[in-house]
Structures are given as structure tokens and as C-alpha cells.
Amino acid sequence: MTDTRRRVKVYTLNEDRQWDDRGTGHVSSGYVERLKGMSLLVRAESDGSLLLESKINPNTAYQKQQDTLIVWSEAENYDLALSFQEKAGCDEIWEKICQVQGKDPSVDITQDLVDESEEERFDDMSSPGLELPSCELNRLEEIAELVASSLPSPLRREKLALALENEGYIKKLLEIFHVCEDLENLEGLHHLYEIIKGIFLLNRTALFEVMFSEECIMDVIGCLEYDPSLSPSRKHREFLTKTAKFKEVIPISDPELKQKIHQTYRVQYIQDMVLPTPSVFEENMLSTLHSFIFFNKVEIVGMLQEDEKFLTELFAQLTDEATDEEKRQELVNFLKEFCAFSQTLQPQNRDAFFKTLSNMGILPALEVILGMDDAQVRSAATDIFSYLVEYNPSMVREFVMQEAQQNDDDILLINLIIEHMICDTDPELGGAVQLMGLLRTLVDPENMLATANKTEKTEFLGFFYKHCMHVLTAPLLANTTEEKPSKDDFQTAQLLALILELLTFCVEHHTYHIKNYIINKDILRRVLVLMASKHAFLALCALRFKRKIIGLKDEFYNRYIMKSFLFEPVVKAFLNNGSRYNLMNSAIIEMFEFIRVEDIKSLTAHVIENYWKALEDVDYVQTFKGLKLRFEQQRERQDNPKLDSMRSILRNHRYRRDARTLEDEEEMWFNSDEDDMEDGEAVVPPSDKTKNDEDIMDPISKFMERKKLKESEEKEVLLKTNLSGRQSPSFKLSFSSGTKTNLTSQSSASNLSGSPGSPGSPGSPGSPGSVSKSTSQMAAITTKGGLVGLVDYPDDDEEDDEDEDKEETVPLSKKAKLESS
Q1: Where is the composition biased (Polar residues) (predicted)?
Q2: From 113's CA, which of 272, 325, 504, 505 has a CA 20 to 30 Å away?
């Protein structure tokens, strides 16, 4: 369909009372069987898809605004608008709507907006129109009362609006305004203020078009100066005519565009400065005023964007070295306002807008502007840059990478941004905070694109760490050459905290790029110098940076930390903090607790071996004692290599023993290592490193119960042999580890109490570390229950018991016979 009369944009009103563009298409009306009625249909001009299908409901209130807009509500909180390219198309569709609803097409609204009582409706219908008093000076009070009384009723508001339109009443009121001002008639001026304010609350586009016309708008503003509640009156007209100047930095040849800019500025001023802040009940009454400004801005941006001559001249003057400073400042301020207006555009239109600016060379122009000495100009350029980064960071990244192939690092756009962040003179670093946020957006991999041919993340991060990172870290490295920060004033501390925040973000998101940079440049050691700062927030930033590195559990980082003894500044800060219970204390303890819970073996060993003496007296938390316990468990594993062979069994989470399939070698292995496993450490497979000790106690306690049962049976056998006059065998147990874990001692004490001569109990002949010299005389007791699978098989219990009895009694009797002989 090529008929431009039917070309429309579809808008919906969002929760923030802003209009969202749903697309451009062509509108038609027709009967839709599914909706059972005449409907409005809009099909997208790009692909013909259906953008809108809305039944023309006989009871829906449709409004025609500005000759090219039709607005209505589909539901309680769902407003729609059609913006027509041509007035003729709007009139045509409006006639269709009025035809369905049985209304006269000359009206601008087809229904009452709010239901009224039947009595009120009957009273209003009995008088077909509203008759206004004659527009005279002595009747202003009567007119003001009529306007005020009509506002609560939607039907009366409609009739009042029609009467004001048809009789040209507003212009007559403004003529009386001039008379009142000449006569200094304050009472009449106060009445006129109430009348004009009431007309605004009628929320009618047709009335706004009269009031905002070139000949009337300044008089309307004049009426609004005389608020009875304010004394003296405000001089809004004086401000608009004398103080506020329209600077045409580039001549605008289109008179319609120029008039639209003037009108929009003045209406915006009325909304923001002149009209009193609307109450909750009045807010929706000014919705048409919001829409009027919104659509004006959309039109202005569109008209400027289409004027290639204007934009070409703008960027030519911006980048021309011959342009004087004052002129360039005006150009930058215009461009900033132009970009601010673009925020009213919808995403697809905004994308086209920024693409146009990019093609015109906005980024090279910004580079020139950021190099200027004028702080105001640089601030405006930063605002423009923020619009570009927030909307399309990939465009900025592509530009700076291309630029790096031609220019030195010092004059790269991104390095200029970093330098402005570092050199911000604001004591609160407001500009630096804004620039740091922009840099963070640029280096964030989450918004980087990946295509089949290239990965933006790899290319840009490679560029950033090669050309820009040294500029970012320069203040940090310059301030940390000694054991304490060389400058520790508040502003420097704030700047370093910002830099650390960005570096911490990089540690989390940039993996090997930042890892190589930190290790090669020894960044962490420099950062930890800031732990000695008098500013707690900076010391905490440094600690957070290290905590983020440790949180990655990367052995490359861990080896670097251990090699450079980088826990020393943290331990010093912890000890210097003393007994104070503050954020520093909690943050340091949390870091060591993380190492303990996650069982980072290399760091655990490093901390205990080097800093245990400094930390052993800390007993108000169990973190450091827990670390020591972890360390001892690691040592025991290393000193007892036979336990390693057990890992493969426990790693499978189940071990099913079948006595019939045991080979002789396996049986010998069980015989020789059984005692070691009784009192040795329970080995947790790697996949279960983070389990608590309680999680593995259950299978161990089962094992110890069975063992106790078997030992009691063995004692009975021994007792019988002693009673028969035979020599009692001597039992000695050997331990392959010299150190018992807490877990082992607890389990042996709890399960073997009451057995003074039992293996592993306190006071038993087999003390830890002793090696049996009389193994030839030791009774070969094979307790197959000594290894218990993590999954038990009840159906094998009887068979197991029979085998165990044989294996226990037979070797004992044989041994007894040999000794007696």
C-alpha cells in the first residue's frame, strides 16, 4: 500500500506516562469476523505484519488531537494513539469511527470519559449546549465560577470546551487581559488566572493549539503570572523575552521548524515553571499537555535529522580549528540538547538517529571537544558521550579500535576519557563517577557482540589492555611505591577507590586478560599497600579486590599470592585493627573463612605455615583454628600414602564386597592394612571436599559398631584359649601416620570406650607411631567387616557373617596350637 494518507505510527502509553512507538504502517477499517464488528487495522509497512487490530467499540471515547492524532483507551491502563502522516488520512479514519458510534465528525471527542449519575446526565442532556456569559470585564468572576463548576463533570467539561472553541472565546479573554493590565485591575487579573488555569485542565488539544499559537502564547503566560496565592507576581514574560535567548548556532532555513522549536520551549516552560504542581487529582487532566510536548519533540528531531545540509554544517564547524571558542561552545550545547531530545524517540528511531550522527562524525568531533580547556564544554561533551555509550557501546568500541591504528595512545578517545576521570577537580568527583560508569559499560563483556568472523570481546579487551590499562592504573602505581600510600588525602583516596572498583569488575569479568596484567605488573601487591590507608573505605576497596581474586580459586593467582607473601598486609591490618568489631574485622575473617570452607589447600598451608603464630590467639571465632585443622588433615594425608589408595574406593560412593571373588593377594592387602584404616583418617573424595565432617560420620560409625562386635567375639575366643592353658597372643598395631585427626580421636573414643585393650583406644599397647617387631607372633585376625561400603546390601549379611566367623576362628585356633606346641 503506497497511499501516504493512510500512513501512521502506532503508540502505546507506558506506566511512566510516556508514549512508546510500536511501529509504522498503514491503517484501514473493516469488518473483522473474530471481533464481531468494525475494527481498525494497522499493518507494518516493513513486512505486512499486524501491528494493531482494535474493534471500534460504541462506548469507547476516541479523541482527535492536533488534526493528525487519534487517541483512545482500550482498557483501564492501556492507552493507544495513531499519529497520521497527513491530516486527510486522520479525517478519513475519524469519520469511520464517528460513523460506527453515530457521532458528528465535527466533534473532537466521541464519548464522556467518566460515567456520571443518571440525574446529572439527564440535567445536562436537557440543555443541549452551554451558554457562556458575554466576555466583559465586569463578568470575569461569573466566568471563573462557571469554569470551576464545570471541571468535576466530564460532560460539562466537554460542553465548555466546545463553547470556548466555537465562539473564539480565548482571544476575547486575552483582549480583556490587556485592559486589566493597563488599568492595573488585580481582581480581574486574578480571575483571569483562574479561568486560564481551568482551560488548561480541560485537557483539549484544540484549545491548546489556540493558546500556544504565536499570537496568543505570551498573553496566556501573562495571565498565569497573576496567581492570587503568590505576591508579588512572577515575571515569566520578562524572562522569556529578555533572559532566555534563542541562539541559532546554525541558520535554520525551515520557518515551520523554527516556529515549532519556539513553541515547544515555551510550552515546556509553562509546564515546568508556570503552572502550579498538579495535585494527584489534576495530574491526568494535563496528559494532553504532556502528549503535545512529546509529539512536538519527535517532530523537531525528525525534521533536523532529515536536514542533511544543517547537520553537515554543524559537524564541519565543530571540527574546524578556525572556529572560535565561544562559537564551539554554542555548537556543543546545541548538540547536547539535540541528543537530549532524542531520548523521546523510540528504540528503532533512536538507532537511526545515532547512526546518522555517527556517519556525520560525532566521535571525532567529541575527541576534539574533550581536548579543549573549557570545563563547561568538556562537561557538555561528556554528556553527549554518555548518550552514545549508553545506547550503542559497540559503535564507540569500533571507533576507538580503528583510531588506535592511526594515532598514539595519548590521544585516543578512551584515554582522554580516563584522563578526565583522573584529573576531575570536583572535590566530590561527580564527573569522575560518571566517566567511570561509562568505562565500565565499555569494558563489560555482557554487551559485546560475537559474530562468526570475529569476537568483539577478544578484540576490544586485547586493545584495552595494550593501549589503555596503563593509563587507568597510573595513579595507583604512582601512589603505592612504598609501604604506605604516598598521598592519602580524601580526594586521592576517592579516585583510587573508583579505579579499584573498575579493576575489581575486570577481575570478575575479564579472566585471562586481567590475570596476566595483575601478575606481570605485580598489581595486587601495590593494591594491598592501600590497606595501610587512614581512609577505611579505601582499605576495604583494596581488601575487596583481593577477595574477588581469591574467590576465583585460580591456582595461578594463588601461586602468585604465596610467592609474594601477599597475606602479610592483610594480617597486619587485622592485627592493627585490634579488638574493634567493625567492617574491616568482619571482611578479613570472611576471607579466611572462605578459604577454610572451600578448602583451598595451597592457601591454607601458606597461611598456617607463615602466619599461625600471629593468629593462634584469635578465639572469638573458630575460623583460624578450623584452618589449622584443615592444614593438619592435609599433612596427615601426605604422611600416610596408604590412605590415598582408599580414595578410589570412597570416590565410587559404594563398595560391594563379595567374599567368593577375593583373591589371595587382596586378602593379604586387607589383613595388612586393616588396622591402619581403623584409626586412620576417613578420606573424602575430591567431589565431596566441601562436605562437613558430620556428613561422613554415619558410615564410619556403622563400621566401628561392626568392629566392636567382632572384637567382642575375638575376646571370647582368646578367653577360651587362656583358660585352656595356652599363651595369650600379643597384639600390636602399627600406624602409618604420626598425627591423629580430631575426627579419628572422636570416633575411636566414642565407639571404643570401655575396651581398655582395644586397638586405638587411649592407653592401648599400640600407640601411634609404634611399629610391631613381633609381627610373626601377631594373631592374623582378618575382619572383613573392616571395610564397609557406603551402600549396604542386607541380602549379603548372613553370607558375610558365616565367612567372617570362619576367618576369625580358624586362624586363632591354628595360632594357638602352634604356640602351645
Answers
A1: 726-744
A2: 272
Closest CA to 208 of 173, 274, 164, 142: 164
Measured CA angle at 683 (ends 608, 650), to 5 deg: 150
Q: Distance between CA 468 and CA 463 in Å, rounded? A: 8
Identify the pLDDT of residue 629. 93
CB 625 within 8 A of CB 633: no
The pLDDT value recorded for residue 658 is 47
CATH number, domain 4-101? 2.30.29.30
- State how far the Cα of 117 lies from the Cα of 138, in Å rounded to an integer: 34
64 vs 71: CA distance, rounded Å: 6
pTM: 0.59
Which pLDDT score, from 0 to 100, does residue 549 have?
96
Place of cell 601377631: 778
Cβ atoms of residues 10 and 52 within 8 Å = yes
Helix (H) or strand (E) holding 144: helix 140-150
Residue 19: beta bridge partners?
13
pLDDT at 760: 39
pLDDT at 485: 93
C-alpha cell at 536: 577505611
| Contact partners, residue 104, CB within 8 Å, separation at least 6 | 98
Residue spans in the chain of domains classed CATH 2.30.29.30 = 4-101
The three cell numbers of residue 403 are 583510531
CA distance 591 to 601: 14
Tell me the β-bridge partners of 44: 25
Distance between CA atoms of residues 752 and 762, nearest Å: 10
pLDDT at position 52 is 87
User: Buried (b) or exposed (e) across 614-648, using 16+ Cβ within 10 A?
Assistant: ebeeeeeeebbebbbbbbbbbbbbeebeebeebee
476516541: which residue's cell?
62
DSSP string, 504-519: HHHHHH-THHHHHHHH
375-391 and 413-422 are packed helices; what angle lies between their axes, rounded to 10 degrees? 120
Quickly tell me which residue has 499519529 as its cell.
Answer: 83
Beta bridge partners, 589, equal none
Grid cell, residue 303, equals 525534521
Q: In what order do the strands lie in the sheet with 19-32?
A: 50-55, 37-44, 19-32, 7-13, 78-84, 69-75, 63-65
Chain position carrying cell 564507540: 396
Query: Quick one: which H or E segment has residue 75?
Result: strand 69-75
DSSP state of 376: H
Residue 720 pLDDT: 44
CB 386 within 8 A of CB 436: no
Strands 37-44 and 50-55: antiparallel
The C-alpha cell of 58 is what?
Answer: 460504541
351, 398 contact by CB (below 8 A): no
What was the pLDDT predicted at 559?
Answer: 95
C-alpha triplet 581, 583, 586: angle, nearest 5°: 70
Burial 328-352 (b: 16+ CB within 10 A, else e): bbbbbbbbbebbebbebbbeebbee
Helix 169-183 to helix 186-201 angle (10° resolution) is 150
CA angle 6, 12, 18 (to 5 degrees): 125
DSSP 134: P
Contact 707, 678 (CB under 8 A): yes
| Residues of the chain falling short of pLDDT 70 | 1-3, 75-77, 111-129, 278-285, 409, 451-454, 641-821
Taking the CA atoms of 554, 556, 560 and 565 in sequence, report the sign of the dihedral they define. positive
